[in-house]
Design a protein that fits this description.
The complex is a heterodimer of chains A (205) and B (563). Chain A contains eleven helices and no strands. With 205 residues, chain A is an all-alpha fold. Classes of the chains: A mainly alpha (205), B mainly alpha (563). Chain B: Its main location: membrane.
């Protein structure tokens, strides 16, 4: 069981750094860091005033038109796009929907999807974790800050916090529900074989 | 007195609010009439007039519609409404509206039944009803012709009767009948209902198999099975199976398949079991995704409102907190069980189809998610002990509800009409109105190269179904559920629905109707046709053009060319 714990932890945590390395995505993160403003929520958009004005003109009440369609709502919309991507489990375990993955963005495989069980269990047993609530708070604060820029350039910052909850989930599940841990681990190992192989094959695509 | 009846007063108020939201401009917004809506309406009209559908099949079990099958319950519900309200968009959307509004008190009474502790349940049930009343997800399907909404009502009614029957065994048969109606009411219920029935039976097997319940249980099973039999038999027909196989992820090349990789590890890298499991689980998880629920919404232009997701953004923290509380709070008992069961099984039929997030197929989720958000809201409210803080929170919540209503109005009425007119196939009613004012002796050709408009033509002309059935034979009754080939040309009196064939069509004096691609302004000018009407979408772009051909000019030109 001890070795199984190590294998499961390794397979869970190695995927994201490996994907970054294999796809050379980490270089994009570094290259784009200096260009952060242009990918941030306040980046200028020539089309925005046109869209806002068209929408405003549709309301019989000028107040309503301005209330729902203004520059702030446009920026808020971009902020929400990043925020919801960063709190979406699909982003971390499936790269969103498999048919949604676009080559240009950095929406890579981050954790094996079976590891979602461990994350959920870690969150379910948050009361048992010494740093659980503090780190969950830190996660949401980080998400709020990171949402100011494009989510796929910065989501790696959240890796340690997510790793903490997943590893805690692994340890707690092993201790509290060993049978469930064993079954989940077996599935994780079986499904990790094609997933890890694909990480290497995709390098040549 | 008022205090005693306050829950009932609030329930009436929230139901009335849901009624008003769904009834405002019902039949007018969305302004168009989508082909499925028109087809359902016309088939109901055909059943009313002839006892047969448009293909001449007597009282079908499922309705053949284009290259698909439509569930029968909704269509049969429209039939008695036509003599009262006529064949109008209002009428075809009315069953959805009625059952959507009825769902609101039903949710309240179901929750009260599942958790009889009034002090705990009443506020939770009332907030759930309020959130459901203003829910963009539930509202959308309550204002338009979607069978899923009716199916949801019957599902909840069946569950309610089931729980009542645990004390009154005779109601088990009523519950079985309601479950049997739910199955053919919408396709996804064919998956949800059997799973739910198994789970309910396993959980309540002791009372169900007890001496007092055994006979009603057996009778309910027999009645339910007999009533469901026709729908189940149809499910095995080649036509039905062909449609199902084009939708589900298990018969398609799985997403992520690397076709270029033919190396020695291909059986692992492109392993079907891996890719399909991954796709199914990702689809399944996407129905719980805050990104889909609170930000993106449904990608379909007819199953979403512009700039509005399935729930309001402000509900997100309460969704998380509510989920946490639901899992932790075992005293919620049977309510917790049903909410969890509905939450977990509702996305299954949607997750086996390829679309990323379809709110139509996963509609039963709207109820458990509204309850989860309400639970989060109430538990958050209870965190505060200070009366003043509580008062501030109630006022704040009231303001948020007002904001949500304005947001709903902005998206569902203002923006939807402008940006979603084309997906709702706006313009056919105006086409028919214009054609009715033109020379009735001249034939009309309506182009169907990029659309299937014959249902809308039948609907708005209220064409005699008997004549239509006689002049448009498509399939014999014995092949109704098997052969899905269809005629591309339809004859509706002087109107022929087919692709415009310019060469012969121009030398005949007739009206041509088509979109801006079929009949461009250049073509009108070149062939000296008369533009009689240009029907425009609300954004000013042309939807349809009606022109009169100029055969004299064509003949003269052709004579010149021959010389």
């Amino acid at each position: 069981m001890k070795y199984l714990l190590i294998v499961v932890t390794f397979l869970t945590l190695a995927q994201w750094p490996l994907s970054l390395h294999q796809t050379n995505s980490y270089k994009d993160i570094i290259n784009d860091a200096g260009n952060y403003r242009h990918s941030s929520i306040i980046a200028p958009d020539d089309q925005a005033p046109l869209i806002i004005n068209t929408k405003r003109s549709l309301y019989s009440s000028d107040f309503l038109g301005r209330f729902f369609n203004n520059k702030a709502s446009f920026i808020w919309g971009r902020f929400k796009a990043n925020l919801f991507a960063l709190i979406d489990p699909n982003n971390y375990f499936f790269g969103f929907h498999p048919r949604e993955i676009i080559r240009e963005n950095l929406n890579i495989d981050k954790f094996p999807f079976i590891s979602l069980i461990f994350l959920l269990y870690g969150l379910f047993r948050i009361d048992q974790l010494k740093w659980g609530k503090k780190l969950l708070g830190l996660f949401f604060i980080s998400v709020a800050i990171l949402s100011l820029g494009r989510f796929d350039k910065v989501d790696f910052v959240l890796y340690p916090i997510l790793a903490y909850f997943i590893v805690s989930g692994i340890v707690l599940l092993k201790r509290e529900k060993p049978r469930a841990f064993l079954i989940s681990s077996l599935f994780l190992i079986i499904f990790s074989i094609p997933q890890y192989l694909r990480a290497f094959v995709n390098l040549h695509s | 007195m008022i205090k005693k009846n306050l829950p009932l007063i609030l329930l009436c108020l929230f139901t009335l609010l849901g009624f008003a939201i769904r009834f405002y401009k019902l039949g007018q917004a969305p302004a168009g009439l989508y082909l499925d809506e028109a087809a359902q309406g016309y088939n109901a009209y055909s059943i009313l007039k002839t006892g047969k559908d448009e293909f001449g099949k007597s009282f079908p079990i499922v309705f053949r519609s284009f290259r698909d099958f439509k569930t029968p319950v909704y269509i049969y519900l429209i039939v008695p409404l036509i003599p009262v309200f006529g064949l109008t968009p209002f009428t075809v959307r009315l069953p959805s509206f009625i059952f959507s509004v009825l769902t609101l008190p039903l949710v309240y009474y179901l929750m009260r039944k599942l958790l009889p502790k009034a002090r705990v349940t009443t506020p939770l049930a009332l907030v759930s009803v309020l959130l459901l009343a203003i829910s963009p997800w539930h509202t959308l399907f309550g204002r338009t012709n979607f069978e899923c909404n009716v199916a949801l009502f019957f599902l909840l009614a069946a569950i309610y009767c089931f729980y009542v029957s645990l004390k009154k065994p005779s109601l088990l048969i009523v519950s079985a009948i309601l479950f049997a109606i739910t199955i053919p009411a919408y396709h996804s219920q064919r998956v949800i209902v059997p799973i739910l029935l198994v789970l309910l039976f396993v959980r309540h097997r002791r009372p169900l198999l007890s001496h007092s319940h055994l006979r009603p249980t057996v009778m309910a099973f027999v009645v339910g099975a007999l009533l469901s039999l026709p729908s189940l038999v149809i499910m095995a027909t080649p036509g039905f199976l062909a449609r199902a196989s084009t939708l589900n992820i298990f018969t398609q090349t799985p997403s992520g398949y690397l076709s270029w990789y033919q190396g020695p590890l291909s059986s692992l890298i492109n392993a079907n079991w891996y890719l399909t499991s991954r796709e199914f689980l990702s689809l399944y998880l996407s129905y719980f995704s805050p990104r889909n629920l609170f930000f993106l919404g449904d990608y379909g232009p007819r199953s979403s409102f512009p700039d509005l997701a399935t729930f309001f953004t402000w509900q997100l923290p309460f969704y998380f907190y509510g989920l946490y509380r639901l899992v932790k709070e075992k005293p919620l008992g049977e309510l917790r069980y049903i909410v969890l069961v509905l939450l977990l099984i509702s996305p299954i039929p949607a997750a086996v189809t390829r679309d990323p997030f379809t709110t139509i197929r996963a509609l039963p989720m709207v109820v458990p998610i509204s309850i989860v958000i309400s639970l989060g809201l109430i538990r958050f409210f209870q965190l505060f002990r200070n009366v003043f803080a509580k008062k501030i929170m109630v006022v704040g919540f009231g303001l948020v509800v007002v904001y949500s209503l304005l947001n709903l109005y902005s998206s569902a009425i203002v923006l939807n009409e402008y940006f979603r007119a084309a997906p709702w196939e706006y313009g056919w009613e105006q086409v028919i109105t214009k054609l009715n004012t033109l020379d009735p002796k001249l034939p009309v050709v309506i182009d169907n190269a990029r659309a299937i408009p014959y249902s809308q033509i039948l609907f708005f002309t209220k064409y005699d179904p008997l004549i239509y059935q006689q002049t448009n034979f498509e399939v014999s009754p014995e092949n109704y559920y098997i052969d899905l080939t269809s005629n591309t040309t339809k004859y509706i009196g002087r109107i022929t629905v087919r692709s415009i064939n310019w060469e012969p069509d121009l030398i005949k004096e007739q009206y041509l109707v088509g979109d801006s691609i079929a009949i461009s302004l250049e073509q009108i000018k070149l062939n000296k046709m008369t533009l009689l009407e240009e029907i425009k979408y609300p954004d000013g772009t042309p939807a349809f053009r009606i022109v009169l051909t100029n055969p004299k000019y064509q003949k003269a030109i052709r004579r010149l060319i021959r010389r």
